Structure formats: structure tokens, C-alpha cells
Amino acid sequence: MATSKLQALWNHPAGPKTIHFWAPTFKWGISIANIADFAKPPEKISYPQQIAVTCTGVIWSRYSMVITPKNWNLFSVNVAMAGTGIYQLVRKIKNDFATEAEPAVAKE
């Protein structure tokens, strides 16, 4: 049974013998790098970079469900990209706007 599932994956139109498998597989590197950046201070987060990561994730997630054959690897990596991009944008926005809104306490 395991052999037939492995053989089905190998012979799938978006399987390891095609670019449709390897391109999304290597794209996971962007999501992993974005996860590693969670430890980065919010001041160092770039709006243009995170907007690009988020938009790429949203647009290509939709596209991966429209094409034939459905490419679940492409879908999952782009959902991860959109999720990590949104998280980073929220961190940056909170840092930029929440810290500015805090009133300064007068020191005596």
C-alpha cells in the first residue's frame, strides 16, 4: 500500500519529477526565513517586504486552487507566506502606532 501511494506521488502531474513540485518546495525557505524574523525587533521589519510577502501569499494561494492539477504544496506554502507576512505587519503596525499613542509621563 505504501508503495502504491509513493508511486502515485512520484507520477503525479505536480510530483517530484516536475518544476511544479520543486518551485513551491524551495519557496518554503521564504516562509522559514520570515518565521526566523519573528525574533527580530519590530523596528527592523520592512513594510514593503512584508506587504510583498503577504500579497504574494494571498494571490498565489488563490491561483493554486484554480490551476489543474491542484497543487497542494503551492497552496500550503502560500498560506504560510500570507500568514507570516500578516503577523509581521501586525507586529510592525502595533510597534509604530501603539508606542506613539502612549502619553509621556512627566518625571519629577
From TrEMBL:
Signal peptide boundaries: none
Gene Ontology annotations of biological process type: pyruvate import into mitochondria
Keyword match Transmembrane helix: yes
Pfam families listed in its UniProt record: MPC
Entry keyword set: Membrane, Mitochondrion, Mitochondrion inner membrane, Transmembrane, Transmembrane helix, Transport
Subcellular localization(s) per the UniProt record: Mitochondrion inner membrane
Record flagged with keyword Transmembrane helix: yes
Gene Ontology terms: cellular component: mitochondrial inner membrane
Recorded coiled-coil stretches: none
Annotated membrane topology: Multi-pass membrane protein
Its biological purpose: Mediates the uptake of pyruvate into mitochondria.
Family: Belongs to the mitochondrial pyruvate carrier (MPC) (TC 2.A.105) family.
Protein name: Mitochondrial pyruvate carrier
